[in-house]
Amino acid sequence: MSTPPTGPALRATDLRKSYPDRKAGTAVQALDGLSFEAERGTVFGLLGPNGAGKSTTVKILSTLARADEGSAVVAGVDVAADPTGVRRRIGLVSQQPSSDPMATGRENLVLAGRIQAMSKAEAMDRAGWLLGRFGLGDAADRLVRTWSGGMSRKLDVAIGLVHRPEVLFLDEPTTGLDPEARAELWAEIGRLAGDDAMTVLLTTHYLDEADRLAHRLAIVDHGRVAVEGAPEELKSRLRGDAVNVELASAEDARLAAKVLADEPVLWDIATEGTTVHARAATGARAVPQVFAALDAAGLTVTSATVARPSLDDVYLQYAGRTFEAVA
C-alpha cells in the first residue's frame, strides 16, 4: 500500500526568470525571487495584473519553461529533476483554447484520454462522465465551433481533468467570459477542491474571482510576491475604512494629500492620478472633516467614497498603487 503524499502540493522557492528583449537589446525580468506554498486540496490564487509574472510561474511549475534560478516542487516531485513525473500528476488549462473546434466535445475528450494512455473504452467512459459533470451532455456530439464561449471553456477544463491529476493549473480561466459563464465556471472550480480534494492553482487578474475562490492567495507584483494569505486575513490586516477622494486634477490631488496629512483621523495617505487614498477608523465620520479641510484650502472635491477593506486596498498597501490602475 503506497504512502499518502505529505507536505504542500506546490512549493516555489526564489524563482527567477528573464526573457531577452531583442528590440531593446536587454532582458525583461519576468520573475524576481517569487516564492509561495499551496496546501493539498485547496485553491491557491496568484493575483496580479497582466505582466506580473503569473503565467511564467505556471509555465515553470508545469514544466513548459525552466527557471533561471530557484526551485519548484509539484505533488512531491522536483520540477527540474523529474519533469516527466510532474506531467503525470498535473492538468493544465492555459489561456489559449486546447480543444479542436472541428471535432465534437466527445471526440476532444476521447482523444485527450487516448493521449494519456487510456484504452478506448476507458477514454469513452471518462469522456461521458466529464460531459455530464460539466453539463455538456446535450452538446456532446456537436462540433465545438458551434458551442458558446462558456461551454468551450468548460471543455478545456474537462480536458485538463481527463487523467485525474493531483494538481490542476488554471491560467486566467474566465477571461472573456460573460458573468453567467464565469459564475458557472466558478462553481466547477469550487467543486474540484471541495468534492474532489484536488489542488488548484488559479491565476487571475479579477479581484472578485480571487476573493471568491481562493483559500489562500499571493498578490504578485513585478515578478515577486508582495503579500500572501487568505483573502479575509489580508483584508482584516487593514484597520478601518478606505476613504477615496477625487479631485479635479493630479496637482490638486497632491496638494490635497499634503493638507490631509495634518488630519489626525487619517493615515496611509497616498495619491494616484487625481485620487487621494486614505484610511480612517470610521470613514463616515472622517469624510466631513476631509471636506472641511480641503474646502478651507481652496480645493474642490468632485467625489468621495467610503468602503470596507478590499483586495484592491491590500494591493495598494503592499504595491503602492491600486490594482485597477495596472490591471
Describe the protein.
There is one protein chain. The chain is an alpha/beta fold and 327 residues long. The protein contains eleven helices and 14 strands. A hairpin with a 4-residue loop joins strand 1 (10-21) and strand 2.
Largest sheet: 6 strands, mixed
Give the integer mean of the pLDDT values. Answer: 92
Separation of termini? 48 Å
Radius of gyration: 23 Å
Strand line-up across the major sheet: 6-7-8-3-9-10
Q: Estimate percent helicity.
A: 25-40%
Overall body shape: elongated
**Helical stretch tally:** 11
Unreliable stretches covering 5 or more consecutive residues:
none
What's the number of extended β-strand segments?
14
Order of helices and strands: EEEHEEHEHHHEHEHEEHEHEEHEH
How does the helix and strand content classify structurally?
alpha/beta
Beta-strand fraction estimate: 25-35%
